[in-house]
Amino acid sequence: MRITAAKVIDLRVPTSDNLLGSDPFHIKPDYSSALLHLETDTGLRGVSVVFTVGAGTDWICHGIKDLAQLVVGSELEDFTQSPIKLYKRLIDHHQLRWLHDGVFRMACGSILNAMWDLWAKSENKPLCSITLAEVLSTSDVPGGVINILTGNRKELIPHFASHMDVNAFVYCGDNSAEIKSI
Predict the structure, then answer these.
(1) Which CATH number characterizes residue 108's domain?
(2) Degrees (nearest 5) of the Cα angle 174, 178, 180?
(3) How far apart are CA 131 and CA 140, in angstroms?
(4) Structural domain total, the chain
(5) Alpha-carbon distance 88 to 67, whole Å?
(6) What are the C-alpha distances in Å from 155 to residues 125, 129, 150, 160, 167?
(7) Partner residues linked to 35 by β-bridges
(8) 83-117: burial string, b at 16+ Cβ within 10 Å, e else
(9) What DSSP element (H or E) covers 84?
(10) pTM of the model
């Protein structure tokens, strides 16, 4: 699956008109966000949202548009094989690494989140399970303490719902028959 385009949407809500959400630090905030859509040649779309407060949202959007060009034309499989490579490519970019804080980090996070979202959608799995699996694989949590299993629900649910050594599991679905069997 190839990333074919990156579209950034600057979404602003004029909450300062009625001082909604104001506080001592944000006197007249306009709650805003930068939305990133990574389009693919299969029709799947990776989405991420960066929340901002009015002024500066255009900087975030520009940063995302600029950095996203590093993934346009790439294959999702390159990311799924080693997500850390894209992280390092973004963070250690030879001409941009001096920017490290603020806008740059938020733009990098937006791209990485959209890639994770796209990966989860391509696997037809909830994003949280893929993210957790990747975090656990690089953490100090001993192997076997937490196991993330994917596969055919018809085969997995009956076995794990009745297994004496399984203390808990997370079910991601809305099938009433499956829920009842759990």
Answers:
(1) 3.30.390.10
(2) 105
(3) 16
(4) 2
(5) 13
(6) 16, 18, 10, 9, 18
(7) 9, 49
(8) beebbeebeeeeebeeeeeebbebbbebbbbbbbb
(9) helix 83-91
(10) 0.64
Specify whether 97 is located in the same domain as 12: yes
Residue 79 CA: distances (Å) to CA of 83, 148, 155: 5, 20, 29
* Residues 96 and 50 occupy one common structural domain: yes
Residue range(s) defining the domain that contains residue 69: 3-125
Torsion over CA: 10, 45, 96, 52 (sign): positive
Does residue 104 share a domain with residue 30? Answer: yes
Query: One-letter amino acid identity for 92?
Result: D
What is the mean pLDDT for each group of 10 consecutive residues in the chain (182 residues)?
93 71 66 88 90 81 90 92 85 69 80 87 71 64 65 77 74 74 75
Counting every residue, how long is the chain? 182
